[in-house]
Amino acid sequence: MHNCKKPFALFLALLFVLSLGITAFAEEQKGSITIREANGVSVEDKTFQAYQVLDLTMVGSGYVYTVPEALKSFYAGYFSLSGDLGDFDYQVTQKISALTGDDLFAFAAQVLAAAKAAGITPASVTGQDGETYVKLNELPLGYYVVEDTGETAPVSALVLTSTNPNAEVNIKADLPVVDKKIVEGNAKVDTSNGAIGDVVSYEITSQVPDMTGYTKYYFILKDTMSPGLTFHQDVAITIGNQALTKDTDFSVTYETTSGGTEIEIVFKNFIRYQEQKGSAITVTYSATINENAVIGTAGNPNLVTLMYSNNPNKEVGGEPDNPDKPLTPVGQTPQEEVRTYVTGLALIKVDPEGNRLTGAEFSITGNKLNKVLVRKDVFTPDETGSYWRLSDGTYTTQDPLAEGVDQSLYENVNEKYRQESVTEVKEALLGVNATAAVGDDGVLRFDGLAAGDYEITELRSPAGYNLLEKPFKITIGWTAPDQISNPCVWTVSDTEATQGYATSLESGARIQDGLIQIQVENQSGTQLPETGGIGTTLFYIVGGLLMTTAAVLLITRKSLSL
After folding, report:
1. What is the pLDDT at residue 11?
2. Given this structure, which CATH class describes domain 179-341?
3. DSSP class per residue in 394-438
4. Can you give the residue ranges of every domain in the chain?
5. I need a surface site. Which of 143, 173, 463, 525 has the fewest CB within 10 A?
6. β 260-267/322-326 pair status
7. Which fold is adopted by the domain 22-170?
8. What's the whole-number mean pLDDT along residues 406-410?
């Protein structure tokens, strides 16, 4: 096998014009090669040259490939051909047809070098700004090697094609790729749901790229976590079966701001892995869902991108204090994204007419509850506020001094209130209650829930209203989006019948933007205690005896009167 000794990073493709009929050649004597950008590799400012390394000759009703005179010695030596030169062209064609894989790559490099050395004049085209493809026109039909000669990213490489008669080829770099997943047990997924306090495990995978021709290679992972995720700083990396050592083989830096956490993982002296081309690179770490998590259908994203060297012909220096970080831009992969989703539960306390009630207190337990954010709206006296308090304890934005307003409905027509949201973090291990009271607007929110089964218990009812007889249970379901850019789907259903305590939700929908809303109704009046068990039985027995006695007396009286 002949090995390729020159640096090539683009995909090589070999296409023969072996299926064209005589009619096609009669109608189309010239061909073209279209080269299109692909996988983020642009044709802009890149020059492509096409060398014809086999001629196509018509023979009777068919055609054959013939070797240019300038390349006969190359083909003879490369394929070790001997014997009757009369079938030389056929032997070369058969040898090329049998090439695959690395052998084909090696041949492409060697025949290109031979074409240049032999002085074969190439067809040439340069990509302009904004172009997504370039085209070489008016080419004699034959077998071509196409070279990318540009010095900008990506590195110069070869593409083999025939005109066929109008061939198209996508330029593809031997570029590293990166993939990111959430690890859940043995599964690796793009999306997951969790509760606040849950730990999310991540895995990034890539592979050692072809670093032929490089003397320095940069390999840097940049990760962006949303504010709802707390980075654990537990990065572990392996290349193949080799575990890398933090600070010796790689460095990890991060910065947390209101916009999230930016993490940078820099591989040190990455060029040393060039003999491990194709080996798997695995990076793992984790984060905790925190109280800043986005509640609902949008999710909490985590994105990663890879920066890498992409031109061995252009030397890029490193930073003075970190030689493994480039001073000037290098290649970059598209961002890979995963998302974790969290929901919340809003309990809306109402009377039978749907009016809001305050003064209730609830607890929630569940099989996925780790930490719950309790958020409620409160109204505070403020002369700049836009709310007034009504006599029934609720609030309104209706100005009591406006014409036609019944001021008797207001507690104080001269006192204004402002509305604000107050959030408390309730620490709760699995199966332990988180307890809170509804806000002044009659709403209590438990934020930070995952899919699972939950039990809600009313611990204290509003004054003058009956306490719910027993807890009600719900099941929260979650369905991943079909595409990560789409919202997920939350569902809620009754695990057990809610006995009329949890009726329809506000606005007639159980789910709004991923927030689960349940309207909880209280009945007014006083419930008198009842005696159960043996007490009731005795009551029935005594009542029965009294009825029997009365019957006996009645019968006796009737007997005496006769």
Report:
1. 33
2. mainly beta
3. -EE-S-TTSTT--GGGBS-TT-EEEEEEEEEEEE--TT--EEEE-
4. 22-170, 179-341, 343-521, 532-562
5. 525
6. unpaired
7. Immunoglobulin-like (2.60.40)
8. 89
